[in-house]
Write the structure tokens for this entry.
Amino acid sequence: MITNKMELSFLRNPPLIIMDKYRSIIEYSPTLGYVPIKNIHFKVDLQNWNSSILTINELGFRKGIEKSIDKNNPILIAGDSFVFGNQVNDDETWPAYLQKAGYNIYNLGVGGYGTAQSLLRLKTFIDEYNITPKLVILQTLVGFDFIRDTYDFYSGFPSTALYKNENNIIKYFCPSKNDLDIIGSKYSSVQTNKNIFITLSEYSHFIRLLFTKQIQGYQKRLDRTYKDALSKEEIIDFVLTEFSKMPYKKIFLLQYGGDENEIISEERKYLLSKLKKLGIEYIDTYNATRINNKPIKELYFYHHTSKGNEVIANYILNTKLLD
């Protein structure tokens, strides 16, 4: 009887496959794959965002509580959606909570970015706007972001993958604008229908695995590994070495999702070992979001809740490393 009740409950509330409309706030970039569209402000009509207010300013990064952009020695923070602040309002991201403590923060986070991609965004932003930062912070979501740097398409968006050229020099590969119209890409012109397999996959993890490509094509959420991509370990080594060379005060930030598995554990150990070896200042937020190695549920709803972001900001502030 217990089994039957569970099955009926699952059938009443299946994990719906929903079309992603995130493309409306980003545009193609030949260097970074995609970047936020400048000068937008609206309530986000996407699943789990609860009509949160999202503002991208004239320099192309997410607004916090600032009235205007102060170019005097800002703290630049680059990373993924946990930095950008998916599913919360402009003033509820953890960079915004740092602003509330009196710091001049630029939130350069972009949802879906790998860590090498975030490093490239950091460097190109500094060059493009001739910024001299007080501090640069590079964030990674442990167990997730570095593997994204092996993809030339991630969740349907063109991405940047690291590879070695014929001279054995590590370079970034990014799909050209002419290569975007493929099945599964956000820019695909092909109209895909919700067939029986996609419908059944809403109820079965096994069917989702069998028909991954069809589902990604329908949702326009293609994940594709670049054919010449470096290994994850090579990418970590490259990113940390390049980050260590930046001529500014710097902090590497480790963040964690609401998951706990061996991949996360092993990557965390590898990162901490490399960071110590290179002498890079770092903040590991693992203990801020866990009790007895288990994620604190109230701090997560896919991404961090507003409370979760406040906890992260306070943890960072308590290290006294921002001064």
